[in-house]
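FAQ
Q: What does a multi-component entry look like?
A: The components come first, one per line:
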Amino acid sequence: MNGMAARTAAREMGRQRRLAAAQHVLARVVVYGAAVCAALVCAAPFLWGLVTAFEHDANDSPRARPGPTTEHVRLLFHSTPFATFVVNTLIVGGLVVVVTLALALPAAYALARLNRSWGTRAAVAILLVSLVPSPLLFLSLSRVVATLGLADSFWALVLVYPTVTVPVSVWLLAGFLRAVPVDLEEQAMVDGHSRLGAFVRVVAPMALPGMAAVVVLTFALAAGEFTYALTFVWSGSRMPVSTGLPGRLSDGDPMLWRSVQTGAVFVALPLAVACGLFLDRFVAVLAAGAGRE
Amino acid sequence: MPGAGRRTGHKTRLADREGFLAWAFLLPSIVYLTALVVAPFGLTVAFAFSRSTSEAPSYRFAGLRNFRQVFGDHVFWRSLLDTLALTGIAVVLVVAFGTVLANLLLVDFRYRRTVRVLVLLPWTTPVALSAISWRWLLGSAGSPVDRLLRETSLLHGGETPLGRTSLAAASVVAVHVWRLTPLAAVIVMAGLTAVPRGVWDAARLDGAGFWRRVFGVTIPLTLPVTAVAAVFTAAMTFADMAVVRVLTGGGPGDSTQVLPALAYLRGVERGDIGNGAAIALFLFPLFLAGVIVMLRVVRRMEARP
Amino acid sequence: MRRRDELMSAVKAVEARGLVKVYQRSRVRALDGVDLTSGHGEFLVLLGPSGCGKTTLLRTIAGLDRPTEGEVHIDGQLVNGLPPRIRRVAMVLQSYALYPHKTARGNIEFPLKAEHVPRHLRERKVKWAADLLDIADVLGRRPRQLSGGERQRVALARALVREPAVFLLDEPLSGLDPKLRVTTRDELKRFQRQIGTATIYVTHDQEEAMGLGDRVAVLDAGRLRQVGTPRDIYDEPADTFVATFVGSPPMNLVQRGDRLVGFRPEHLLPVENVAYESRVTMPLRIERIEYLSGDRHVYGSVTRIGQETRVIARLPATVITPLAVGDTHEFAVPADRLRFFDAEYGTRTAPVRIGG
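Then the predicted structure of the entire assembly, as tokens:
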């Protein structure tokens, strides 16, 4: 290359380099900006809730001391059955988790390991069930619940909630179980266990982290359900937190507004943290499922 | 050879027979779901043709009476249109934002962990509770949203966002979008990570700029998962009554009364089961549409190696 | 001819100076100061075990990874900070990374479309590349309908149409059947000769490296151990790593004081087969004999020239000395075939006299 062409080429390279560097910086700025935006928007109502939880109400008496107050939090626990609601949710959630695992784990194993021609179709059918909207069912289910004598008890919820949690759990668990190599199981069978024994002794322990993720998700789904809870349980002392707290709004003292939404924040945060711990696992198993199909 | 005709003494244990095991394991779930989903659905259809109420729940056939009632009810039509519009807008927004969020969360940056947890808040929180928080954010004096709306003179005097019809509807859409974007993002993230890593490198090496990579590679490869995310979003939006009930109570004046909420009002609160069931049945076509899309997606994904 | 001018020019196709790559999270030094040059038209092979940094080096040259320190020059231009497409490099990844949703033709066309090449020119180039790689009749198929060999050729065609200054190949044969590997190796070399583009090829298979490379660069733990022609690497290894990594079976190393004495299995023969002048003898206690492709591989232990060490001797079919397991037989190595290394650092040292 003669001198002129070489100089032009070098200049062009320099320009390209600066352009690339600028693009790189711009990309970083956009990423951080978008991340901050997303985080703020997603947390917005809870942030506001936290901020106002410790503020004085505009209607407070003038002799109240300045600075943050824990009055609203105190009211939450003393003047509303918040604690009862949370306990109810915990109990119902726990029972639903047990029932869901009992139903979903074997089904997931069947889908993951026992390769039958109807395997994929069954899996898809189960997933489609989760799409059935609850309003289509709640009227009939309320009749069923009444007939079984479970009206206005949280056992009705324990009975019905798994319709929401089982399909998703089967899918996720099947994904986690598929990730356990078949070799381990076959080794166990060669070593003298039956298929069932191999499952219990070898596969289940390895899928434990995945199962923990499903437990957390199931609990979150059960805690969040509203329609069935509203339909089947109407006495205050038995309500879970998802219908109890809003209920306080309609018939409670307007002064309790701050306390009520503080309660909402208190429930939201631990759930999000718990799910966040398992997010990577969810994505990984969904991805494996997507890649495999 | 001696013994060739004799059966071995060791019988295959029941727990080893594959076919049996598969059925045994799957059966409880299938029975449960059939009993508590498929059967009740049939029951709902039956109720829609009945004259049952909560005081007189025995089944009395009533032909098309409920449907005639429903068709003549302008609140129902408004509700149906609102539900469709709400769902449509929400799905478009959720898919758009969700895809952007999914890509964002896959980039490596500091505090990504924290951002991921915060971004999950909307979806993992019980619907009703986040609706409470939103109502507080939108309705309380001095809240940032309140102030913002006043600045842009979308709001005047003593109004709250939930008191004006247009703003109330927008608020409901906004809460649904806020709630479901993380879910869509997780689903799309799964689709993105399923793409073999080399493909991104190859695209960069081939000289594809940002937009060409997006339209030529990313979007075609994630179309199936995006469809799945859209279907789930739609299902969770048109089936939900918590947001409407807590946020606006259906108001102002029945303007945000979506189908599920209407069905609940009529069927449970007013006790007219037949009427409620008939209203709820109109959600079935939407469900069916969702099922068809999912089946096509699955078929398409099965065609890949 | 253009190629000869390029070969003679002082400007190298690829030049890496002082490349260092440290991964922040794991503090791993994937590249620890690598200096390498490759001339126009040359087939350079990067050889090393997994984790030695050869793929990192390739990706750094391509522009997919940024080096922590150091410079990369392509065709005389400093390319640090430039994205891959500006560098005029083409890379074929180990997995081929074909776009699953496009046809073979669509895959090959993609880079041309990205550079806004007009359609008639695009079609001509695709045809040229497809004919060269003999895949013209599968252009309409999708990657999942192609065999491993066909996918590889589509990936090569996609790289070829960009007419790059350098081809970068990352273990392209590892995904193929062993039988296919040998024939494809030959085709690849002929292909490169025909195109005349500088090529950098990464592999962990020393046989592949020795067979394909004009020059071979041996890497270990992010450091370049030796660069040279296959013959140089084999006959004059720079350290014990190169000596044992290249050559199968590997070079025998016997500790003698603060030195390691090295000799290749094919030079260790029964004493009666080695010329009397300047040979070094040692008794070999035979433990095992393998018969492979006509050769005899004798496994045993030697003493006298150093610590008792297990060694391998490779006897060609022409050596018919009878040997049996359990015997101790005198073996010898021609003195000029001995190589000496520092026992502590492994580097090559000057020869030491050993009594005959």
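Q: Is there any commentary attached?
A: Sometimes. For this entry: The first helix of chain B runs from residue 18 to 48.
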